[in-house]
Write a structure and sequence with these properties.
This protein is mostly helical. The protein has one domain. The protein has 11 helices and 4 strands, in the order βαβααααααββαααα. It has a two-stranded antiparallel ribbon with strand order 1-2. The protein is globular, with a radius of gyration of 17 Å. 31% of the residues are buried.
Length: 193
């Protein structure tokens, strides 16, 4: 399973980049990885932390499952219904908000929720965005990740884990809020067939 985790949490917990997938998501091949991350988060909170706010490894694993299912649904939608949904979304948002602001949003997103290569300094966020992974332009992958990050932040069941994927800085620094608010309008422009 996988879900986004912020650069700030990676750095504060000194999490090994090897548990991350190409898009910068945590990958739990087994429950043991979930337990390790939960343990690190609980340890970082210290002994004075509220026991009711202890990170449960099973719940963390379940959150990863939900995120993986969301990705599977989006992939199926792209495959069967609308292959251009992401590429057209980038164009549509750029026409409504300003292309430079959309670019800044994507770059800032990749910097704050980096891929392994960006996290390790092997590529800049811009270099990664200009590439392609598994036949999907990275710019489109970043948009999908950004939208799923937004859904994660809205999901009340994910609240205990919010520190992993908090989107407050994106809201303050970019047009993230404008893009996510306009998402329903964009989706109405797509032919649902």
């Amino acid at each position: 399973m996988e879900f986004h985790i912020s650069r700030a949490i990676r750095e504060s917990l000194n999490i090994d980049g090897l548990i991350f997938g190409y898009t910068g998501n945590v990958i739990f091949g087994n429950v043991a990885a979930s337990r390790r991350l939960a343990s690190q988060l609980n340890e970082a909170r210290g002994t004075d932390a509220d026991p009711a706010k202890t990170i449960n490894a099973g719940a963390l694993f379940a959150m990863g499952l939900i995120d993986e299912l969301n990705h599977a649904l989006v992939a199926q939608y792209r495959k069967e219904i609308d292959p251009a949904v992401h590429s057209e979304a980038i164009r549509w948002f750029a026409s409504k908000l300003d292309p430079t602001k959309i670019e800044q949003l994507l770059v800032t997103f990749v910097e704050q929720f980096p891929t392994v290569a960006v996290y390790r300094g092997e590529l800049t966020a811009q270099q990664w965005l200009n590439g392609t992974t598994e036949d999907l332009p990275n710019r489109e992958a970043a948009l999908e990740e950004l939208l799923l990050l937004w859904l994660s932040n809205m999901n009340p069941a994910f609240a205990p884990f919010r520190e992993l994927f908090n989107d407050d800085d994106l809201k303050k620094q970019t047009v993230y809020k404008s893009v996510t608010e306009a998402l329903p309008d964009y989706l109405t422009t797509r032919d649902a067939r």
